[in-house]
Each structure stands twice: as C-alpha cells, then as structure tokens.
Amino acid sequence: MALSRAAIVKANDIPSEPVEVPEWRDPETGDCTVIVRGLTGDELDDYQASIRQFRKSLDGRGMEPVLIQQGMHAKLLVKCLVDDNGERLFEDNEAAELGAKSGRVLERLHDVAQRLSGLSDEEQEDMEGNSETPAPTGGSTSPSPETSDAPSPNSSEGSVPES
C-alpha cells in the first residue's frame, strides 16, 4: 500500500547531528556542542540559488552557471545550525557574522551540513554546472564515441584566423 499524503507530511525526514566545537566552548557552561540539521527542500533551493548565478557563456551562445563561493560556507550553515528545539540560530542575513568565525570550524560544520543535506561532491559539482571541467586530453577510451554532422564550436571549418 502506498503512503498517504498525511503520512508523508508528518514524516520526520530531516536528520540532525550534534557536533562538538571546542573552539566555541561557552566559558560559563563549558558546553561546546552545536546541532547541525539537514536542509528542507525549500532551504536547499534557496541555498543553491544564493551561490549560483548565470552569465553569458564565453562563446556568447547562451548562459552558463557560475558558482559564487563568497560566503558559501556561512550561507549553508545559517540554515543548518539549530537549537535543542530545532529552531534556526541564525537568519539568512546573518551569514556574514557567522562567516567571520574560524574557517577551520566552518569547514568542519559545512561538511556535516552537506552530508545531512544530501549535497555530495558530485551534487556540488552538478550545482556548479561543471563549468570548470577541463577539456579531455588524449584519445578516447570509449568503444563507440558519439558523432555529429554539425561542426563543433572549435572547428576551424569556415573560420578565418584573426591577426
């Protein structure tokens, strides 16, 4: 039997994990644990939109995604750091304040938030649009390469060298 709408809506499917951050130890209580939780679907969309822009492609034929790395760690963490009740500790507009903390700590927490949110390295590359993927060198190892009747953008056919 398939799940009902009500069962889907009430399912607790967003993981969280306590993480020790000795660098942030509270001098009064001695506590150094933060709770990192995974993103909701809407938060994932917002996060991805905040770190990706589109620009004209180098060949001028379309648009290409560009990863905006400025504040990337803090933009994710403001959405993922929560209190004991699961309420966010930071608002989106407080990312710069969080971004002023130790890069080493932010990197550690970012890795946990990525994992809990399903943002693997491959998914991160997809989000980046693979715009920085280098062109392959050497021969193909594929037994049956794809072919096209259209000239490639790098084809010299019909082009005039510039001087």
Short description:
The chain has 163 residues and is α+β, with helices and mostly antiparallel strands. The chain has helices at 5-10, 41-50, 72-80, 95-99, 103-117, 121-128; strands at 16-20, 33-37, 52-56, 63-67, 81-82.
Task: List its traits.
rbstp2171, three-stranded antiparallel β-sheet, two-stranded antiparallel ribbon, flat, disordered C terminus
Blueprint of the fold:
Layout: H1 5-10, E1 16-20, E2 33-37, H2 41-50, E3 52-56, E4 63-67, H3 72-80, E5 81-82, H4 95-99, H5 103-117, H6 121-128
Antiparallel strand pairs: 1-2, 2-5, 3-4
Helix pairs in contact: 3-5
Give structural notes.
The protein has 163 residues and is an alpha+beta fold. The protein has a single domain (13-128), classed as Phage tail assembly chaperone gp13-like (rbstp2171). The protein contains six helices and five strands. It has helices spanning 5-10, 41-50, 72-80, 95-99, 103-117, 121-128; strands at 16-20, 33-37, 52-56, 63-67, 81-82. A three-stranded antiparallel sheet has the order 1-2-5. α3 packs across α5. The termini are far apart.
User: How would a crystallographer describe the biggest sheet?
Assistant: 3 strands, antiparallel
Helix content: 25-40%
- The named CATH superfamily: Phage tail assembly chaperone gp13-like
Q: Order of strands in the sheet with the most strands? A: 1-2-5
Beta-strand segment tally:
5
Write down the overall mean pLDDT. 82
Q: Roughly how many Å apart are the termini?
A: 70 Å
Query: How many separate structural domains?
Result: 1
